Amino acid sequence: MTLDWHDAEDIGIELFEKYPDIDPLTVRFTDLHTKVTELPDFEGDPKASNEGILEAIQMAWLEEYQDAQD
Questions:
Q1: CATH number at residue 31
Q2: In a domain, 3, yes or no
Q3: Which pTM was predicted?
Q4: For a Cys staple, 44 with which of 3, 4, 21, 61, CB 3.0–4.6 Å?
Q5: What pLDDT is stored for residue 70 in this prediction?
Q6: Is the pLDDT of residue 6 over 90?
Q7: Does 36 fall in a domain?
Q8: d(Cα 15, Cα 37) in Å, to the nearest integer?
Q9: Taking Cα atoms as reference points, which of 54, 69, 57, 65 lies closest to residue 12?
Q10: Is residue 2 included in any domain, yes or no?
Q11: How many domains does the chain have?
Q12: Taking 90 as the threshold, does the pLDDT of residue 1 lie above it?
């Protein structure tokens, strides 16, 4: 499976699996961008992201993080 910027849910899951102890709300968008582009399955254009896309990814990651806290 390959990931692109519009795969927010799948990216959120992968970020949670890789960084289970990081609260996604503490991650700056510049750092989030780096974390996404460094995922092994990510093949999107690094220049094709924007604030809305990064926010969607952050919220998907947050959902996984919060589910694990319960």
A1: 1.10.10.600
A2: no
A3: 0.95
A4: 4
A5: 85
A6: yes
A7: yes
A8: 11
A9: 57
A10: no
A11: 1
A12: no
